[in-house]
Amino acid sequence: MCNNSITIVGSYNVGLFLKGQRLPKFGETIIGDKFHEGGGGKGSNQAITASVLGGKVNFVGRIGSDKYGQDAVAMYKRLGVSTDFIQVDETIHTGISVILIDKDGNNIISVIPGANFNLCQDDIDKAEQAIKNSKIVGFQLENRIDVIDYAIRKVHSMGISTLLDPAPAVKLPKDLYPHIDYIKPNETEASILTDIEVNDFDIAKKAAHWFISNGVKNVIITLGKRGAILVKEDDDEVYKFEPPKVEAIDTTGAGDVFSGALMTALSKGTSIDKAIVFANYAAALSVTKLGVIEAIPHLDEVQTFLGHSS
Questions:
Q1: pLDDT tens digit sequence for 163-200
Q2: So what CATH class is 5-23+33-305?
Q3: CA-derived radius of gyration, the chain
Q4: How does pLDDT run across 126-152, given as a tens digit for each residue?
Q5: DSSP assignment string, 258-293
Q6: Do the Cβ atoms of 101 and 20 come closer than 8 Å?
Q7: 285-301 pLDDT per residue, tens
Q8: Count of CB atoms within 10 A of residue 173's CB?
Q9: What are the CA-CA distances from residue 250 to residues 99, 237, 239, 293 (Å)?
Q10: How many CA atoms are closer than 13 Å to the CA of 198, on its beta-carbon side?
Q11: How far apart are CA 247 and CA 284, in angstroms?
């Protein structure tokens, strides 16, 4: 019998954040306004979000033995994420992300994977007991695709629910989709995966049905300010979820907060519909603050926000 813990297989990148009035054009140098350094990486962000929101979380990943890796371990211990399955790699540096942000919260990001690309199948196997004790296991695509493919198939074969946040998006083997219980692309990622240009609600529905036809059980496509849609296996309905209105300062990491919050709710037995509402509100709160880890809302904040909006 599975308990309600969460295991997340993914990446850690230290984030170097530079904020200015606008994003530079190609070949242009501009003067920014603010800089700060913080923990990042999609898997890490989702693990911390799930923990901050009350989930019991194991993180499976790799870091370097450098200062950035040491900072990551200290952060996980402070925020309640288990470090039992984080491998310290002596051969390469910790992953690094550079994030440029404009005054409206729009961003561009460059990532050097470092130790993340050394995550291997053996690392997944070492975490088998934690996986067995999980209600859901989350994945992204910032590690090597062959390792994530192996891990998704392994977890699914154990009867544990799998969630894939397919970013950065790359084509996946079609025979992997039946092993995915939940997939959560945004418009761009859905377009890359399906070859359907997702630019409005109706096209998003078409892309969602493409995933269902290829074996995914639940498809959530996030549409930015327009919210999200849900399509379920064996259900002809398309469910639409409007986001709460907030003033965005920094959208970096909002998708990770959504995924982490979604997994937390699902791990507690919440229905998928209510879990998406919870995730929508958590992600909306996160964009009202600068940064990623610093912007993750606590459970009481999300519950209060939900209460005020109902």
A1: 999 999 999 999 999 999 999 999 999 999 999 999 88
A2: alpha beta
A3: 18
A4: 999 999 999 999 999 999 999 999 999
A5: HHHHHHHHHHTT--HHHHHHHHHHHHHHHTTSSSSG
A6: yes
A7: 999 998 888 999 999 99
A8: 9
A9: 11, 33, 27, 12
A10: 26
A11: 9
User: The pTM is what?
Assistant: 0.91
At 268, the amino acid letter reads K
- Unique residue bearing structure tokens 């695509």: 141
Q: Could you give the residue numbers annotated as active site?
A: 256
What is the percentage of the chain residues whose pLDDT exceeds 90?
A: 83
Q: What is the pLDDT of residues 9-32, one digit of tens each?
A: 999 999 898 999 999 999 999 999
CB 171 within 8 A of CB 144: no
> Kind and range of the H or E element at 201?
helix 201-213
User: 268: exposed, middle or buried (C-beta count within 10 Å: 0-12, 13-18, 19+)?
Assistant: middle
Domain boundaries in the chain?
Answer: 5-23+33-305
Cis before 297? omega within 30 = no
Q: How many residues would you count in the chain? A: 310
Q: Helix and strand tally (H, E) in the chain? A: 10, 14
